[in-house]
Specification:
- By secondary structure, the protein is an alpha/beta fold.
- It has one domain (2-200): Aldolase class I (TIM Barrel), CATH 3.20.20.70.
- Helices cover 35% and strands 21% of the residues.
- The chain has helices spanning 11-20, 39-47, 64-74, 87-94, 111-117, 139-142, 161-168, 188-200; strands spanning 2-5, 24-28, 54-60, 78-82, 99-103, 122-126, 151-152, 172-175, 180-182, 185-186.
- It has an 8-stranded parallel beta barrel with strand order 1-2-3-4-5-6-7-8, surrounded by 7 helices.
- Strand 9 and strand 10 (185-186) form a beta hairpin.
- Helix 1 crosses helix 2, helix 1 (11-20) runs parallel beside helix 8 and helix 2 packs parallel to helix 3 (64-74).
- Bound molecules: ligand LGQLAAA5.
- This is N-(5'-phosphoribosyl)anthranilate isomerase.
Length: 201
């Protein structure tokens, strides 16, 4: 199972998460976020974590041109897309980058969702309705609905990730709020504890 540490805003926090064993780092380029980072800092962070840590650019409701330009400037290795979007948009991004397509529980079972997830290079990630809000999903209620090969986000932290993994068996987990000392600043102990708990589940 892969572990992603999201909301990285500095080289320091990128190195901290990579040294703690993160498989992937998330860089949020959505202007609404208190974890907004510039492509320049994300690029520099990526250069400091070695060759095997994935760098994921996170976007919410942004235009195709902006997503592709920002991803290129930041030299990310994958893109995470939140919010409603047209199938052609998703197809266009997936032609350049592996995509984590973020879904809410209400999206599961919809025809449009099945169409999106049928595209090559698109991996589902289930998250709470408010991204970056630190609110866990009702994992027990999602048993049997959770998409095969999907990732899980939404209010995960050191104290609850093992339980979530046992219930839903995701291919990857992702967190931000519960790993922070303050908005956009990582708590080193919580980052380490999260990765250990996820791996030990
Ligand atoms: O964290 C944000 O500010 C954010 C803003 C816009 C899109 C996504 C954002 N974060 C994503 O939210 C999930 C889970 O966050 P949490 O652990 O519940 O706080 C994660 O995928 C982040 O990438």
């Amino acid at each position: 199972m892969r572990v992603k540490v999201c909301g990285t805003t500095s080289v320091h926090d990128a190195v901290l998460a990579a040294e703690a064993g993160a498989d992937a780092l998330g860089f949020i380029f959505a202007p609404v976020s208190k974890r907004l980072v510039t492509p320049e800092v994300a690029r520099e962070a990526g250069l400091n974590v070695g060759p095997v840590v994935a760098r994921v650019g996170v976007f919410l409701g942004q235009g195709l041109d902006e997503v592709l330009r920002t991803a290129e400037a930041a030299r990310v290795s994958a893109v995470q897309l939140h919010g409603p979007l047209a199938p052609l948009y998703l197809k266009a991004v997936a032609a350049y980058y592996p995509v984590l397509r973020v879904l809410r529980p209400a999206d599961l079972g919809r025809e449009a969702t099945a169409e999106e997830l049928g595209l090559p290079g698109v991996t589902p990630m289930l998250d709470a309705p408010q991204p970056g809000g630190g609110q866990p999903l009702d994992w027990a209620a999602l048993r049997g609905l959770f998409p095969a090969g999907g990732w899980l986000a939404g209010g995960l932290g050191p104290e609850n990730v093992a339980e979530a993994v046992r219930i839903l068996k995701p291919a990857g987990v992702d967190a931000v709020t519960r790993l922070e000392a303050a908005g956009g600043i990582k708590d080193a102990e919580r980052v380490r504890a999260f990765i250990q708990a996820a791996r030990g589940a």
